[in-house]
Automatic annotation (TrEMBL):
The keyword Protein biosynthesis applies. Pathway: Protein biosynthesis; polypeptide chain elongation. One of its GO terms (molecular function) is translation elongation factor activity. Its main location: cytoplasm. PROSITE patterns: EFP. Belongs to the elongation factor P family. The lineage of its organism: Bacteria, Bacillati, Actinomycetota, Actinomycetes, Kitasatosporales. It is found in: Cytoplasm. InterPro entries: Elong-fact-P_C (IPR015365), NA-bd_OB-fold (IPR012340), Rib_uL2_dom2 (IPR014722), Transl_elong_fac_P/YeiP (IPR020599), Transl_elong_KOW-like (IPR013185), Transl_elong_P/YeiP_cen (IPR001059), Transl_elong_P/YeiP_CS (IPR013852), Transl_elongation_fac_P (IPR011768). Keywords: Cytoplasm, Elongation factor, Protein biosynthesis. The gene is efp. Involved in peptide bond synthesis. Stimulates efficient translation and peptide-bond synthesis on native or reconstituted 70S ribosomes in vitro. Probably functions indirectly by altering the affinity of the ribosome for aminoacyl-tRNA, thus increasing their reactivity as acceptors for peptidyl transferase. SUPFAM superfamilies: Nucleic acid-binding proteins (SSF50249), Translation proteins SH3-like domain (SSF50104). This is Elongation factor P.
Length: 188
C-alpha cells in the first residue's frame, strides 16, 4: 500500500478488481477551495488503454511489485519469443501477443526489459531507438517527390517503414521503436 502523495511515474498500481495500471503522469492539485487531490494519467499494463483518474490527496492505493529485468532475445520457438536472463541464463518463452509491437524490432542478440508480476510476463520494453539493416528498398528516383521524399523499406525483421529516398538496401539505420520512424543513418 502507498499513499497518493507517494505516486511516481512508472509506479504500478492495482486497482478495480486487481487490474494493473502504470502511472504515466501525475499532478498534485491544491485548489483555493476544497480538499487537495491528485490528477493522474494511468495506462493499463495489459491492454495499453490510457485513462485519466483523480484521487483525493492522502488516499491509500494498492501497489503491485513489478520485476523488470534486462534480457536478451535469443530466438523464435514457433509462436514464442525466447529471452535469456543475462544474470541467471534462465530462458523465458513469451507469447507474440505479449511481446506486441516490439516484435517488429527484435533481432537475435537485442536486449530488452521484460516486466513480470507474480511470474506472469506483463510486457516487453525496447530501448527508444534500435539499429537495424535495410533488407530491401527500391532505388530512390530523384524526380519522384509525390511521397514527400520517402519510400517504403523492409527491415531485417520483416517490418516495413518509410525512409528517405537516399537510403539503399544493406544500409544500417536507426529506427524509433515507439513510432516506427526513421531517425537516421548509422555510421559504420
Amino acid at each position: 500500500m502507498a499513499s497518493t502523495n507517494d505516486l511516481k511515474n512508472g509506479m504500478v498500481l492495482k486497482l478495480e478488481g486487481g487490474q494493473l495500471w502504470s502511472v504515466v503522469e501525475f499532478q498534485h492539485v491544491k485548489p483555493g477551495k476544497g480538499p487537495a487531490f491528485v490528477r493522474t494519467k494511468l495506462k493499463n499494463v495489459l491492454s495499453g488503454k490510457t485513462v485519466d483518474k483523480t484521487f483525493n490527496a492522502g488516499v491509500k492505493v494498492e501497489t503491485a511489485t513489478v520485476d523488470k529485468r534486462d534480457m536478451q532475445f535469443s530466438y523464435m520457438d514457433g509462436e514464442y519469443f525466447v529471452f535469456m536472463d543475462m544474470q541467471t541464463y534462465d530462458q523465458l518463452h513469451i507469447e507474440r501477443k505479449t511481446v506486441g509491437d516490439a516484435a517488429n524490432f527484435l533481432v537475435e542478440g537485442f536486449e530488452a526489459t521484460v516486466a513480470q508480476h507474480e511470474g506472469e510476463v506483463l510486457f516487453v520494453e525496447l530501448p527508444a531507438a534500435v539499429e537495424l539493416t535495410v533488407q530491401e528498398t527500391e532505388p530512390g528516383v530523384q524526380g519522384d517527390r509525390s511521397t514527400g521524399g520517402t519510400k517504403p523499406a523492409t527491415l531485417e525483421t520483416g517490418h516495413q517503414i518509410q525512409v528517405p529516398l537516399f537510403i539503399t538496401t544493406g544500409e544500417k539505420i536507426k529506427v524509433d521503436t515507439r513510432t516506427s520512424d526513421y531517425l537516421g543513418r548509422v555510421n559504420s
